[in-house]
Amino acid sequence: MVVRGQHRQTHGSQFFSALVTNNGDGSEWLGDDHVIVTVVLTGDDPREYFGGGDEFALWLGKDIAAGVVTRRLFV
């Protein structure tokens, strides 16, 4: 999947390759208003785009869902 984020200072958008998972089998994603997922990103400088409280979009040819970062961990 792909995640689109907005740079905090320039407000430009950038796409990041992402692995998106949750604790279930995925069936609860259908028809729910919200779901908690874990997103692992690859790409240059995700710290500039994603911090606590920042919004992001899951993108699959178009925005398919929106979310808010609740915490982050960089390795």
Descriptive account of the structure:
- This protein is mostly beta strands and 75 residues long.
- It is 0% helix and 40% strand.
- It has one domain (2-68).
- Strand 1 and strand 2 (13-21) form a beta hairpin.
- It has no helices and 5 strands.
Q: Give, in spatial order, the strands making up the sheet with the most strands.
A: 3-2-1-4-5
Which descriptor suits the 3D outline?
Answer: globular
What is the count of distinct domains? Answer: 1
Class per helix and strand makeup: mainly beta
Number-wise, the strands total: 5
The arrangement of helices and strands along the chain is: EEEEE
Largest sheet: 5 strands, antiparallel
Q: What proportion strand?
A: 35-45%
Task: Describe the secondary structure blueprint for this structure.
Blueprint: E1 2-6, E2 13-21, E3 38-42, E4 55-59, E5 63-68
Antiparallel strand pairs: 1-2, 1-4, 2-3, 4-5
Question: Could you give a quick summary of the protein structure above?
Answer:
With 75 residues, this protein is mainly β. Helix content is 0%, strand content 40%. The radius of gyration is 12 Å and the shape is globular.
Key features of this structure:
75 residues; mainly beta; five-stranded antiparallel sheet; 5 strands; 0% helix; 40% strand
